[in-house]
Amino acid sequence: MLSLYRNAFGGLSRQVWLLALVMLINRSGTMVVAFLTLYLTQKLHFSITEAGFVMGIYGIGSICGTFMGGRLTDKVGYYPVQFWSLLLGGIVFLILVHVENYFVFCGSVFFLSALGEAYRPANTASIADFSTPETFTRSVSLIRLAINIGWSIGPAIGGFLASRDYTLLFWADGITNVGAAILVFSFLRTARRKKAAKKADAHEISQKDSVYSDRPYLIFLVLTTLYAMAFFQLFTIGPLFYKQVCKLSEMQIGYILGINGLIVAFVEMILIYKIEGKFEKLYLISLGAGLVVINYVVFLLSHDYMWLIVGIIFATFSEIFAMPFMNAFSIERSKPHNRGQYSGLHSMTWSIAQVSAPLIGTQTIAFLGFDTLWFVLGSFGLISSLGFIWMKRLL
């Protein structure tokens, strides 16, 4: 077992491990977003409607940020985009703690979200640059592992800080962002590609090289969005379903959601190591998209606690099979000089899903009930699964 773990994590470059460390620090400090609605209503005394509007602006900012981040990565390179995204984002956090005017807060949140999400396509492009084709998917999985650990640490620390003073959240986020920027400056600045080599790739992207002329990739983005909308509902609407319909306690809900993080942490890297290169990526993505459907079938047929655990296990393996290979497929379709554009649009599909999923979920529940929502989401997963198989045959 130890040898298997050593092999699964071995062969990755020092820069990829550094990127994982930066991501771990960055995501561990992502506390404000988790408690933003409470901060707006409890501390600043905004109405629930106003708080919801602020969260909507945050989502719009994330979509714009991923798009612009991808464009900038192609123009100036991934190093400056990552560095300035982290540094300026940290500074905005430290400024935002002093903002109490509603309209200024809305504008600041948009700017903050756009800066934060600009980091994602630049990060993906840098992973590709510091990996070989054989290690790229495992490199992505390592970054995902850092994100999962960071998301586990962040809310726990955030809850501790928020119980004492909400403003501490902004200071913690700001300081961790600046700290991550210093790491990028210290280590990635010298590891980036030489300027002469960069210039050779940096020619103007022609119409032929544009991501918008790659029709199979645009189909891939639509299918990815459908899958992402189905998957994100597990963590936005799922807890509400567990509480209201299944009558689970908060502790039981926490256990179910915790299973997801544990399986990803202990299984994903080994599984990727064993299957990478042995199967077509689109078939693995299709398998992943299909597995999420099983969770919604469980939701429709049973509210028993043990069956709900079975459902989340299938959903977790859905994530493990689909997401790393989606990133790998996106990079394989791109070229060095348009990689940021491809990564940006791929990241944007997830931002769109994050914004639209709660809206679709809550409105469907309000008018048609939970069962209808599970049927719709299961259909999304099934359509995307079949669509990826069709894409493979098309290509």
Tell me briefly what this model is.
With 395 residues, the chain is mainly α. The chain has helices at residues 2-9, 14-28, 32-43, 48-76, 78-96, 102-129, 136-162, 167-188, 195-201, 215-236, 238-244, 250-275, 281-301, 305-333, 339-368, 370-394.
What does this molecule look like?
It is a single chain. With 395 residues, the chain is mostly helical. Helices cover 83% and strands 0% of the residues. It is built from 16 helices and no strands. Helix 5 packs antiparallel against helix 6 and helix 13 runs antiparallel to helix 14. It is globular, with a radius of gyration of 21 Å. The model is unreliable at 193-203 (pLDDT under 50).
Write the layout of secondary structure elements.
Elements: H1 2-9, H2 14-28, H3 32-43, H4 48-76, H5 78-96, H6 102-129, H7 136-162, H8 167-188, H9 195-201, H10 215-236, H11 238-244, H12 250-275, H13 281-301, H14 305-333, H15 339-368, H16 370-394
What order do the helices and strands follow?
A: HHHHHHHHHHHHHHHH
Structural class: mainly alpha
Cα-to-Cα separation, first versus last residue: 38 Å
Q: Please count the beta strands (DSSP E, at least 2 residues each).
A: 0
The helix content, as a percent range, equals over 70%
Biggest sheet architecture: none
- Proportion of β residues? under 5%
Tally of individual helices: 16
Parts with pLDDT < 50 across at least 5 consecutive residues? 193-203
The overall pLDDT average reads: 82
Shape field: globular
Q: Radius of gyration, rounded? A: 21 Å
